[in-house]
Structure prediction request, 191 residues.
Amino acid sequence: MAYSLRPFRDYSEHDVLNLFAYDTSALTAGSISVTKGTLVKIGTGWKNYDSSAELGGGLEFIGSAGTLDPTNVTSQRYGVVAKVIETTTGETPLGMTLYDVKDADENGELLKYNPRKAAEMQAVIPGQAVPVVTRGIFLVKDVAGTPAAGGTAYAGVSGQISASSAGSAVAVGKFLGAKDNNNDTLVKLEL
Prediction:
């Protein structure tokens, strides 16, 4: 995925959902990387209480905080049960991720040991809630197709914003301009 969300953003915190984690079950541990700016849909819905879950209240255990689990020591991390997954063409997105989802930094060190670095990288650790925005104005790199000012933005393949209405593409907003020399496009997201 070459596309990404650029730093220019104009949105209200009232339009951000912090209830869902990104479902990384299909990704390989140690190389989990989901780019901010990915259009996502609900994979597993939110519940206030799940009697089948060990914790209830919409939480789950997401693994040990360490690499070894000494005998008689419980050191679990908590995660969110409700999950989102990336959309494909024809699927209606819930919104767009504002942070990356990563389990390791650029040096391969696990971010679960350094949550401050994860926050500095604007990344969430798999299992934690990823902020999903439903409305606002965003600068997006590498929009698929050829966007034009006033044109409709669609949900494309692999969670990417597209200028193509091919197939049963779902509209997600408007383009406020064409691509610039850096391949960035200003998009008004309206979900």
The two ends are 22 Å apart (CA to CA). The chain has a mean pLDDT of 84. Residues 4-61+76-190 form one domain. The chain has one domain: 4-61+76-190.
